[in-house]
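In this section we walk through a basic example: taking a raw amino acid sequence and producing a predicted 3D structure, encoded as discrete structure tokens. The instruction is simple. Fold the sequence below.
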Amino acid sequence: MAVNLQNVILKISAGEPRQLLGDPTPQVAFSGRSNVGKSSLINSMLGRKSLARVSSAPGKTVTVNFYEVDKRLYLVDLPGYGFAKRSPADMQKFSALTDGYFTSNKNIDRLKLVIQLVDSRIGPTRDDETMLSFLTELNIPFCVVATKVDKLNATERKKNLAAISEHPLIKGREVIPFSALKGEGKEELWKTVFRYVRV
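The resulting token sequence is shown next.
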């Protein structure tokens, strides 16, 4: 797939549903807990160090970030969820913004795939399960990426990945082991993206 990964910009950081982009470019969205490694994964996929900001204080940013890839695809970084230290106001804003992306997005038909991130060390949390159920109910295509696999030894890796794959909300879906540190899973994830997105 001839897409120039060097030609990437942050198109917009939308803080309100009305700011969501409405152009016809295909979108692939990234969903996951605040500290699951979304920004690191996006930077790894794009071969950048700091295009997506990796925060030392997870959960502070409540925006939907649209990264335009070669003017042919948007990688959409949804706000991280499940961070206990969020204020009630931030939680309300997060819910409205994320829900708005899926339910009042005038261009939701351009969303081709959601990449749902799960921490390989702990498996799906209750918040992850809520999101997985939400995606299933809306009939939105998704795959699962098991992050931080470099932090597991061989025995833990085999056991944890098997448990994630067999989870009732995930079983039958593609599960991709990923390490932003080592680059593992990057090529496989791009192949999955391009199975859903024709650019």
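Looking at the output, two observations stand out. The mean pLDDT is 88. Strands lie at 8-14, 27-31, 64-69, 73-77, 111-119, 142-147, 175-177. In the next section we compare this with other chains.
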